[in-house]
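Extended Data, panel c. Modelled sequence:
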Amino acid sequence: MARYIGPVCRLCRREGMKLFLKGERCYTEKCAIEKRNLPPGQHGKLRKAKLVGYGLQLREKQKVKRIYFILEGQFRNYFERAARMKGITGENLLFLLERRLDNAVYRAGFSTSRRQARQLVNHGHVMVNGRKVDIPSYQVRAGELISIKEGSRKNPHIESAWQTASGRGRPSWISQDGGDMSARISGLPAREDIDRSINEQLIVELYSK
């Protein structure tokens, strides 16, 4: 499967905001946005043009793609699926992205970033209802139990993320299920659980042209 393997800090700099792609580093002064909040490239300082119309829509789409760390083809498939669903297309798109297993693992507090969560899923550390699921795009459903494989619970990265999750907080649709590194999908995501800086209507307008 195709994946982005380049430097991720440049993605945050391109969008001019923290996308939290490097976990705990993003909360420190080492974050690229804190040190040098300019677009990447030798002409970054010169990019001061105000975005309007298509440019604004494109940047919003790129931002959401990078937040959830997926590539264009997969993102387009999510949009087409959202358009076929009942309800508001933009919100449906965000709900589908939120229900990805790698995102749920991150939101539950098993990892400090979605990139790290995807790696945990790919390497077989994550279980859903007691069975190993190694597909990051798996859509979680209400009532399902997400847990870390027993042999992986002493992993220092997972332990550290789990301990700090209470400070970061969990969305209303995910709840801690006991103290054995497990979390319950207590419902489906609501719009207020998702980053309010996202303007999903711009993405709908872009793909509707």
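Residues 54-68 form the longest helix (15 residues). This feature is highlighted in the accompanying rendering.
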